[in-house]
Amino acid sequence: MADLPADGPDDAVVRRVEDGVAWITLNRPDAGNALTAAMRDQLVAWLEEASADLAVRAVVLTGAGERGFCTGADLRSGGSGPSRPEGAPERASGDTARLIRTGWQRLVSAVLDCEKPVLAAVNATAAGGGMHLALACDLVLAAEEAAFIEVFVRRGIAPDAGGAYLLARLIGPQKAKQLFFFGDRLPAVEAERMGLVNKVVPRAELLAEAAAWAARLAAGPTKAIGAAKALTNRALESDRATALWDEAVAQELVTGTDDCREGLAAFAERRTPAFRGW
After folding, report:
1. What count of other Cβ atoms lies within 10 Å of the Cβ of residue 23?
2. Interatomic CA distance for residues 64 and 87, integer angstroms
3. Tens-digit pLDDT profile for residues 242-265
4. How many of the other CB atoms lie within 10 Å of CB of 177?
5. Angle CA(171)–CA(207)–CA(56) in degrees, nearest 5?
6. What is the pTM (predicted TM-score) of this model?
7. Where are the alpha helices (DSSP H) in 123-239?
8. Are 262 and 131 found together in one domain?
């Protein structure tokens, strides 16, 4: 399961699709699975493809090795930007904000916006942007040895990759500030207690547990699950009237699917539904 074949030009991030599940593995274990710009862009592309691919009904994101799930950006792999006119500064006003918007924010948004459920199988340390990548996923499984670290304060920089947006909603502003201000290592068990992780398992059982959860997701009514994901994410920032309107529209759309018809027929016939994903 951990030795996945490459499905792209760079084996630093690899993918396979099996039984309706797209397994995506960050494959730079010696570098703690830190992301290069090319890896980040490939992840975005695969997540966007998953939304439209009827063969994909769930996504699992994990890391290779035992050093890191993802330890953030690979700061040594910075790309060369467009050429600059003579006398221009090395960094102009707006460069950093643009880099954040088109980089890690785009990746985190791709996870949140993916129409299929995304499950993180956190095998080891998730730090900085890597922590936020995991927390953007719909469900989070973690190995007992895993940990989460808001490393930004250790570098003297502000949190990015959607961190404040995610953490304030997941655990509230006070706990979020505690993690941001101190940058302490948060063991997986404590992260589960805080509500950041759904379940902690021994590392040897992590991929098997992820496979079991993903299989259940892939066998479910994909459009209904996608609607539940979108409604839940939007509810965190909607007023009541908007949330209820979204709910009604989502139900209007979902009740027209083949899976809804199958679910109702199975209920009437007292049998297990056979959902197909559309």
Report:
1. 23
2. 44
3. 999 999 999 999 999 999 999 999
4. 13
5. 85
6. 0.89
7. 129-136, 152-155, 163-171, 173-182, 188-194, 206-218, 222-235
8. no
Decide the pairing of beta strands 68-70 and 125-127: parallel
Phi, psi of 18 (to 5 degrees): -145, 125
Structure token digits, residue 103: 């980089």
Indicate the burial class of 233 (C-beta count within 10 angstroms; 0-12, 13-18, 19 or more). middle
Sign of the alpha-carbon torsion through 28, 34, 36, 39: positive
Instruction: Name the band, by pLDDT with cuts 50, 70 and 90, for residue 204.
Output: very high
Structural domain boundaries, residue 251: 222-269
Q: Smallest Cα–Cα separation from 222: which of 42, 50, 98, 102?
A: 50
Q: Which amino acid is at 29?
A: P
pLDDT in tens, 148-183: 999 999 999 999 999 999 999 999 999 999 999 999
Contact present, 162 and 109 (Cβ < 8 Å): yes
Q: What are phi and psi of 149, to 5 degrees?
A: -140, 125
The backbone torsions φ and ψ at residue 188, rounded to the nearest 5 degrees and listed phi first, read -55, -40
Q: In the chain, count H helices and then E strands.
A: 12, 10
| CATH number assigned to the domain comprising residue 211 | 3.90.226.10
Q: Looking at 201, 218, 235, which one is the last position of a domain?
A: 218
